[in-house]
Structure formats: C-alpha cells, structure tokens
Amino acid sequence: MADELSMIYSMIIWWFILFRMDKFNKIRNKMYRLDLGIVFAIFYGILWTYMHSLKTFIVIFQVHFGLMVFGAMLKSIFIYRQTQHRTRYIMCLITIYVTLLVPALTSWILDQELCERMNTAGGFNPQLHAWWHVFCAIDSHVGLVCTEAMRLLSIKYKLHKIKHADSSTRPFKPEDHLHIRFYFGLPYVDYSHEIQLKQPKQQ
C-alpha cells in the first residue's frame, strides 16, 4: 500500500510549483523564514500518509489522486497557453505526459481485473501493477520537469518586463531562455547555458 504514497508526494510538489509559478523570494537578513506553502504541503503529505496507512478510504485515495492529476494537467495546459510559455519543449513534455497516462491506466485497470485470475490459473503474470508504477514514475518526472520549465520561463519573463519596462521593442522569446536535454530518455532542464551567460558578467 505504501508504494502509492510516492505518487501523492510528487503531485504535492507539482501543485506547489504551479502555485509558485512566478515567485522567487529571497531570504534576506533572516536565518529562517516561515513559508506557509511548504508547511501546508508537508502537513498535507503527512495527512494522506496517515490515512493511507490505515488501509481504508482506498476509493477516496484513488479519486483524490485522479483529481490531483487531472487538475494539474488542466492548470499546466492553461499556463502553457500564455505567450511566455509557448515553446516546443513545453508542448513536447505535456504531450509525453498525457501519452504515458494511457499505458499507465491500461496497466492499472487490467491488473485490477485480471491479477487474481492470472495468479490462480498458474499462468504468466506480467506484473501489470509494477508497470503501472513504472509508467507513473516516469510520468511524475516528466510532469515535474514540465512545471519546472514553465516556472523558469515565468521568472525570466517577469525579470524581462522589469529590465525592459521602458522598451517595447524587445519582445520576450521563451525559446531563448529554456533548454531541455534528455538523459537516458528522461528530460531535464539544462541550466548550463544560463551559467555560461553569467560567467562573463561576473568576470
């Protein structure tokens, strides 16, 4: 049962990023700073950990997870429609995420319906529940990278507007501020280009 909790944790992180899309608070002159968003996310995770440990509310848990995924997808698509987020990278990540849901849900549904039958028949069991978790793990990674990329563009766009507040001749080009790389087939946001741009300024 505990293997389902990691999916809830990843969705909590995803929603946290969605709510902090264009905020980049810096801690100044304070050793600690109370962040109500982080406190709520931790409390929410502990709450669902406790509820799931009781091995009850299974249907509620499943519906809750489905709503978190569906809501995050809608929110991400809505954010993508904003001009500063429209890049082929973001569209690619959203497409991958939605596509991976198909084999994930198929594996889960078939496992629910056929698992006991395959075990009692003594035949080959393809471990569909394990594949459900594999697809969900990859999907969680893609979703988090997608929101990370959109948050980066949101912050860059906000800084661009501040820097060029008096000039309308410099439009924001999101493709110049986002670089996605793939490592063993998994995407991640590449910050090396940004670091290279900062080094000459520091020198």
UniProtKB/TrEMBL annotation:
Keywords attached to this entry: Hydrolase, Lipid metabolism, Membrane, Metal-binding, Transmembrane, Transmembrane helix, Zinc
Membrane topology category: Multi-pass membrane protein
Main enzyme class: hydrolase
EC number: 3.5.1.-
Cellular compartments per GO CC: endoplasmic reticulum membrane
Keyword Ubl conjugation attributed: no
Transmembrane recorded as keyword: yes
UniProt-annotated binding residues for Zn(2+): 129, 133
Pfam families registered for this protein in UniProt: Ceramidase (PF05875)
Functional summary from the UniProt entry: Hydrolyzes the sphingolipid ceramide into sphingosine and free fatty acid.
Similarity comment text for this entry: Belongs to the alkaline ceramidase family.
Protein name: Alkaline ceramidase
Organism the protein comes from: Rotaria magnacalcarata
